[in-house]
Amino acid sequence: MNENNAVLDKKIPLRSELGQGLKRHEGHERNMRVHFARSMLRNILHSASQGLGIGAVLTYAEMLQMGATRDKNRVQVDAGIHDALMENAAAGRQWLAAFENILSAFEKQYACENIAADILSREFAAAVNDAEKFRGIKNQWLSMDPVTFSGRVRVSREGFREIMDELLLNAFKYSPPSSRIRILCCSTEKLVSFMIVNEVETMRGGVSGVPPEYQKKVFEPFFRLNNTWDDRFRDQRFGLGIGLTLAENVANACGGQLYTYEIDLPVTDTEKSAESAKRIVSELVLEKAG
Amino acid sequence: MAKILAVDDSEPMRQMISQTLISGEHEVVLACDGEEGVKKFAEDRFDLVITDINMPVLDGFGLVREIRQRDNGVPILALTTESEDEKRRSGAAAGVDGWIVKPFKPAQFLAIIKQVLS
Hints:
The structure holds 2 protein chains of 2 kinds. Chain A is of the alpha+beta class. Chain A is built from 7 helices and 10 strands. Chain A has 2 domains: 2-106; 112-287, Histidine kinase-like ATPase, C-terminal domain (Heat Shock Protein 90). In chain B, 47% of the residues lie in helices and 21% in strands. By secondary structure, chain B is α/β, with parallel strands linked by helices. The longest helix of chain B has 13 residues, at 11-23. Chain B has helices at residues 11-23, 34-43, 60-70, 85-94, 106-117; strands spanning 3-7, 27-31, 48-51, 57-58, 76-80, 98-101. Chain B has a single domain (3-117), classed as Rossmann fold (3-Layer(aba) Sandwich), CATH 3.40.50. The A-B interface holds A 45-46, 48-52, 54-56, 58-60, 62-63, 66-67, 80-81, 84, 87-88, 201-206, 226-231 and B 9-13, 15-16, 19-20, 23, 34-35, 54-62, 81-83, 101-107.
């Protein structure tokens, strides 16, 4: 009995430590949930309030009422304000559709298969074609190296295309007008890497590029480096700071990894400022099959 | 009637601000980011500046600081989606006189402008 008590006594501090550790873990999880919920709500609020969409519908509806004249049962309104209201209502619907896209993307299953370079090259070309409407917005130009590697990589064709769609969209959104975006492919014995490399659009007052401290954060759900919103990209499938999270999920589902980071390139004669030497690299690394 | 410089990176938002200000019989000059705002402010005299905060190239805080170096008297209103106290404090420190959160109510927006100008 005494011996048992002695053993128990020794265990008590251990239990206490375990209890503390568990509490810390639960506390961390709770903080993460609160952080996630706050980011999500803040992004929804920002997106609803700025540019075309729900917020503008409210403002235009009130402007319509301010300038309206009543004649018995009929109300006369300003045609310009009415048209702007309807345009924003359409944008609001598009915004709600993005929520549906996000929900279905979270639930989607991807079938991974072993794919050769020529097939992935076609998927890549299709992703570039999908992204053409976004490329034209800031008149950037794409240069694409041939997709070549020996053997096959393990990935879902659909998933690969969706990841490339997202990476290309980000490259167009966050690089300067008329700049060059490079698509590179390189391989080792076991891995194949697809890189999209774009120049950095500098922002005074906000975050420019992807500084090292944000390299992991950009994959967090609903995280945005800046709260700027470019209406010209409103046709994007997701928005709300969720695209990279979904792309990373797809990459991981196929055993791949997704990275975003900055590199410094040697400055050429035509690039005078230090900023012009910076590039953002978005890289998908896939394993070769068997 | 006042001459107002309105700065916002969103084209539809600029259009909406402009329509509201014109309905209040004000004259409006528009700029699409902080840098263009600084340039337009230097070229003319304004009774009021209304600026967004989150903008590419130069943000609203940067614009306000640049304006305050040249002119300490012109009233400046922030019109933004940001509603957090920390941002408001940063705005006040930079030289913002008033803070309006989007989406704005046109009648209230015009009333605030009238109050600021008086």
